[in-house]
């Protein structure tokens, strides 16, 4: 029986993935790094410091530290989130459905806490989540399961009694590795990829979350 729901943030709660891509496409070329849109799509769900370190190994630059580059990208994403408030369809509906069932609710994101808090402020969601966790300070981000395991621990429930809601395959792998039930809502452009079959349910939108679907997990 499911006792808790753990939400990803980027791409699930807010349509911020285009902002991460835009910020990378703006910042990396100023460092002499060759990058294209598909490159940014391929790293969806991976922590930004890991992405920056990957590009530094492949195409090293001299003008800024990796930490500086992470901050440049992150600050641009925060600007875009505050400006556009890109709420995903069905977010409030899905949260209310979980609340109606008495589920405990957490947020577990690869994003830095400063972006998580900026997003919660922009969407007026402060106080909705019992636990808010970032993989920022962990040894590994998603697809490592630690941020999801930490969320279950914060909620004082077994991971086996949690459902994770994700949009990316990277996040889905993290939730599966944590042994949680999984609901994935991929970007429409990637929804037909066979690899998403490992999820317990694949939906088109958070609007499709129902009490019956959650109770049947």
UniProtKB/TrEMBL annotation:
The protein's required cofactors: Mg(2+)
Task: State the InterPro entries in the record.
Answer: Beta-PGM-like, HAD-like_sf, HAD-SF_hydro_IA, HAD_sf, PGP-like_dom2
Source species, domain of life: Bacteria
Pfam name, any one: Hydrolase
Keywords for this protein: Carbohydrate metabolism, Magnesium, Metal-binding
Family under the similarity heading? Belongs to the HAD-like hydrolase superfamily. CbbY/CbbZ/Gph/YieH family.
Name used for this protein in its record: 2-deoxyglucose-6-phosphatase
- Origin species: Vibrio algivorus
